[in-house]
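Amino acid chain:
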Amino acid sequence: MAKNKVLASLTAAQAVYESGIGASHVETTKNLYGIPADNQYTGAVWSLETEQLYDTRDDYPGVDVLLKVYDNYDQAIDDWIKYILTTRRSDKGPLKYQNIPGTTDYKKAVKFLVRDDYQRDHLIRNNDPAYESTVVSIIEKYELYKWDQAVLSGKFTTEPPKTYYVRLSADDPVIFSDTNLDNAKEISSNNNKAKVFTEDGTIVFNPWEETGIMYKVMLEWGMAATQIFASKNLIDAKAEAEKHTGYKVFDNDGATIYDPWVVAAEKKQDFGNPNIKKSIQQIPGALIVLENVPLYRRYQDKNPVRFISGKFYFFDNKVLEGRVRITNTRDPRVINGKDPSKVIGFVDLNRVV
């Protein structure tokens, strides 16, 4: 809002209305506004007809409307704002929603959308007679107008969030980029010698840098006979601990730095070492909850296609290189290997909550 002058309350309320407060596809697509994939769009798409994800428009065999798939909600919001700011009544005509930017009254902003035929041109539910009153009620119920007031009072600036880049060196190609530093750290830790840089080339995270600490891998501190590995590189020490049931990483003083086995114990899920190839009998269709977990297109991939959150289900009981296939449905007719087209992708088993 501070940058583009479109009311924050309107942007949020439209997301609530158009996503149905979390339609089934939203967790996968991050498409809060039902924005369709036009002919110029080349990314992944979602079919409302088949309720499936496709890598590109060309992979979809049908003819119905396809939705864009975003990496995160910020991208969806930015695309919706762009739609409001740039859509014209004709190729060279006036801007269609030119009265929205700068409007400080949320009721007027919603009324302008109605008057400018936003329902007819954009909304999937374009025949909702209660559209205007519903969006206004969302703003008032959740007091979203307070966000407008905060921006108008000058509490927010237009300074963009920092973007973090994962690459081998400042001159090498970008492996991954995100405004979320934790996501960038995770990707760098999974790519040999990769580091996290800011836009100006400053290194903010280097998981491969050797420190003065000697990390030791053993069952328990003080049990010197169980030590199987020692390194000044924490990443290498973590990887070694994950290969041996019950082993942990300790620092010079005996403090536990990393315990890959405590996660399963705390969650009461004895999945064992996720990095060892073996059959694990998790139940197909069992509910799993993911919180900002990397989603991989193939089990061998180093880099995820996106990070996902929400409720999903095991597709089958197979584990490939520590990863499992997940789906949006627990329908017995399609899970347990019966319909691979329903698979969203792979996640690391040790990230399942």
Observations:
- The longest helix spans residues 73-86.
- The longest strand covers residues 287-295.
- The chain has ten helices and 15 strands.
